[in-house]
TrEMBL record, chain A:
GO terms for molecular function: DNA binding. This is DNA-binding protein. Residues 64-127, 225-288 form the ChsH2 C-terminal OB-fold domain. Residues 142-161 are annotated as: Disordered.
UniProtKB/TrEMBL annotation, chain B:
InterPro entries: Thiolase, Thiolase-like, Thiolase_C_2. NCBIfam families: PRK08313.1 (NF006180). The lineage of its organism: Bacteria, Bacillati, Actinomycetota, Actinomycetes, Kitasatosporales. This is Thiolase domain-containing protein. It comes from the Bacteria. One of its GO terms (molecular function) is acyltransferase activity, transferring groups other than amino-acyl groups. Pfam families: Thiolase_C_1. PANTHER family: ACETYL-COA C-ACETYLTRANSFERASE, NON-SPECIFIC LIPID-TRANSFER PROTEIN-LIKE 2. Residues 243-372 form the Thiolase C-terminal domain.
Length: 315, 388
């Protein structure tokens, strides 16, 4: 059995979110050390606030200011914090019902250990030194010796100078990618500049690149078949706009190429010929560059063009 | 036991624009849902279940957004489902909702689809740099343009056909207040002079990137009887799938699309769609897909679709108007685009399409596809209740 390849795959993107009126007020409030909730139709105060009533679905816009101290309603100890979590040292995840609120907010509690945490304990907000209008403006919660607050929360207009209207939510996925046995075999053959597909035992079609199974028949494609290296341009487009992260001068031709012996086309760039002279039926061969995993591009072989009928089923 | 006839009694959509920075995702979907309820003169309490759809989570980066949208859509305490079939999702979402009514599981269902493309990154979401794989070399249009060239070669269509479609759809959009693009000064010459991006596709022959949502209220006969405005009745609906790539795949006229259309026509008793249908809302992300789908959906023989476009048959005042709303070429909040096709078909047979109403439309087709011609969803709606 040939070696199955693996490689790390990390994808990251800074997504943006428009906040709408309620969350805009909430996050701007945090920047100003003010925690806002919203009053639901049944009188309960929801913190963090939501835009729509969880019971009646009606729009909620009556903002109130709640306390910055509260009571832990439940918790879980986190012995090994991960990247991006609120604290770098072990901490408790806590649900905190702030004074004046009827629902609990999820955050981190900075405590010495699990023995120092209990349901019902009093905690208070530890504000971040630099606040930008984000949930991280609450750095975490910390134990509080003070008595529970009493009063009903006061109404708040939710108006602040320079309100925050969007937030950035970075997303990151970090995992190990394995292309599987069929792709690994294909890549290992490519390293020797050979293109090896796999034949379906049922419909006899040759798949390049192989995926280990025939998508039409649903059976494993075991038999390896070397195809190419020459092939026929079945169709193409001329790319006139420069794509980000691609170091190719425009215009260039992006083509579907049916390698001789393959039953479906792969996609590649055509070079070695002016872009406006590329045509369907053009016969091409791969051009390799030092260290390339794939052919850099394909160029004309000089053979006569393939007859349309010979490749029309492969378009 | 026969199926329950399904009626569309409420339709709502947002005014589609490049960026809705004033609302959250919840605020966006709420707007469309509220308008659909208002159209049907119903309240949240009248809804038995909610079925929503959108394109991949990676687009906006909100994982399982249906969880967070439950209270905005009045779904608390009710069944809520999410459907996901890439670009066709708006269509398949509506069909899942319709099937719940047809099967008498629920009496009145809110269905909704959305996308906030301004807060998403479709290219990133669709083409992650996978280790060992050759990077995509062409961008979004580069996937479609070679198939357009194949269609032109196969049919001998003149290379102006695509511009005729774009010119028509952009003019139709001027009559649709909800459409994203309103190019008041559009001319055929401008379309034909726009930059060639992925030859043979020009800039003006591509769809925009939009923020928007679309919602519908689907209900049973009793619900339709109480509705304040005429209903659109579902006469047929079907979905079909096929792999994105396989030996023998016909990207110009995919088999799954043909099979899906045939199933819908069989259910609706349609034998000659070209004569029996009054309007079509089809998913045309790049202009040339109009003649391609005209053939795939059985409105023209193979190789003849472009002739319908060229002769003006698909114009708003033509014999078979295609995309009277302006279509995907004028409005493209990806996840919602399929449902917009279904909803616009329903608006036509309800006689409620406003300035882009096709006179006397009695039967219309809504069509969606997506995922590299992998998923197809269609429904056929009529002004009359289906015979049971």
């Amino acid at each position: 059995m040939s070696e199955v390849l693996t490689a790390p795959l990390v994808v990251e993107f800074p997504f943006t979110r428009s906040l709408g009126p309620v969350l805009s007020a909430f996050l701007t409030g945090l920047r100003e050390r003010t925690v806002l909730g919203v009053r639901a139709s049944d009188g309960r105060v929801v913190v963090p606030p939501t835009e729509y009533d969880p019971v009646t679905a009606e729009e909620m816009r009556e903002l109130v200011e709640v306390g910055s101290s509260g009571t832990v309603t439940t918790w879980a100890w986190n012995p090994s914090p991960r990247r991006g979590q609120p604290l770098a040292t072990p901490f408790a995840w806590v649900l905190v019902r702030l004074d004046g609120a009827d629902t609990a907010l999820l955050h981190a509690l900075d405590a010495a250990g699990p023995d120092a945490v209990r349901t019902g304990m009093r905690v208070r907000v530890r504000w971040a030194a630099e606040r930008t209008g984000a949930i991280t403006d609450i750095a975490c919660f910390e134990p509080d010796d003070g008595p529970a607050g009493d009063g009903r929360p006061a109404g708040h207009r939710g108006e602040f100078a320079d309100p925050v209207t969007t937030l950035t939510a970075p997303a990151r996925l970090d995992y190990t990618y394995a292309p599987g046995r069929a792709q690994s075999r294909y890549l290992q053959a490519l390293a020797g500049h050979r293109t090896v597909g796999e034949r379906c035992p049922s419909c006899h079609k040759v798949y390049v690149p192989p995926r280990g199974a025939c998508p039409t028949c649903g059976v494993a494609t075991g038999t390896q078949v070397e195809v190419g290296p020459r092939g026929t341009v079945t169709t193409f487009c001329i790319v006139n706009i420069k794509a980000k992260n691609l170091d190719i001068e425009v215009p260039y031709v992006y083509a579907h190429i049916a390698l001789d012996g393959a039953d479906l086309a792969l996609h590649a760039r055509i070079g070695g010929i002016p872009y406006d002279q590329v045509r369907m039926g053009l016969r091409v061969e791969p051009v390799w560059t030092e260290g390339g995993r794939f052919p850099d591009h394909y160029r004309p072989t000089g053979e006569p063009d393939a007859d349309y009928d010979s490749y029309k089923e492969l378009i | 036991m026969s199926k329950e006839p399904v009626a569309v009694t409420g339709i709502g959509q947002t005014a589609h624009v490049a960026a809705r920075r004033d609302v959250s995702l919840a605020g966006l979907v709420r707007e469309a849902a509220r308008r659909a309820l208002d159209d049907a003169e119903l309240t949240w309490a009248d809804i038995d279940a909610v079925v929503i759809g959108k394109a991949p989570d990676f687009f906006e980066g909100v994982m399982m957004p249906e969880l967070y949208l439950a209270d905005a859509l009045g779904a608390v305490g009710k069944p809520m489902l999410r459907v996901h079939t890439a670009g066709s999702v708006g269509g398949s979402t509506a069909l899942v909702a319709a099937n719940l009514v047809a099967a008498r599981v629920h009496r009145t269902v809110l269905t909704l689809a959305f996308e906030k493309q301004s807060e998403s990154n479709a290219m990133w979401g669709l083409s992650l740099p996978i280790p060992f794989q050759q990077p995509l070399l062409a961008g979004a249009g580069g996937f479609f343009a070679p198939h357009v060239r194949a269609y032109m070669r196969r049919t001998g269509a003149p290379d102006t056909i695509g511009s005729l479609v774009a010119y028509k759809d952009r003019r139709n959009a001027l009559k649709n207040p909800y459409a994203h693009l309103h190019e008041e000064d559009i001319t055929l010459e401008k379309v034909q002079a726009s930059p060639m991006l992925w030859d043979p596709i020009r800039y003006s022959e591509t769809c925009p990137s939009s923020d928007g949502a679309c919602a519908m209220i689907l209900t049973d006969r009793a619900g339709a009887a109480r509705a304040p405005h005429p209903a659109a009745w579902v006469h047929g609906g079907a979905m079909r799938s096929e792999p994105t790539l396989f030996a023998g795949k016909d990207f110009v006229s995919p088999q799954a699309g043909k099979d899906c259309a045939a199933d819908v026509y069989r259910q609706a008793g349609i034998t000659d769609p070209r004569r029996q249908l009054d309007a079509v809302e089809m998913y045309v992300p790049f202009s040339w897909y109009e003649p391609m789908w005209l053939e795939n959906l059985g409105f023209a023989e193979e190789g003849e679709g472009w002739k319908l476009t060229e002769s003006g048959v698909t114009e708003l005042d033509g014999d078979l108007p295609v995309n009277p709303s302006g279509g995907v070429l004028s409005t493209n909040p990806i996840g919602a685009s399929g449902m917009l096709r279904f909803a616009e078909a329903a608006l036509q047979v309800r006689g409620r399409a406003g300035a882009h109403q096709v006179d006397g439309a009695r039967r219309a087709l809504g069509h969606a596809y997506g995922g590299g011609s992998q998923f197809f969803a269609m429904w056929l709606v009529g002004a009359e209740a289906p015979a049971t």
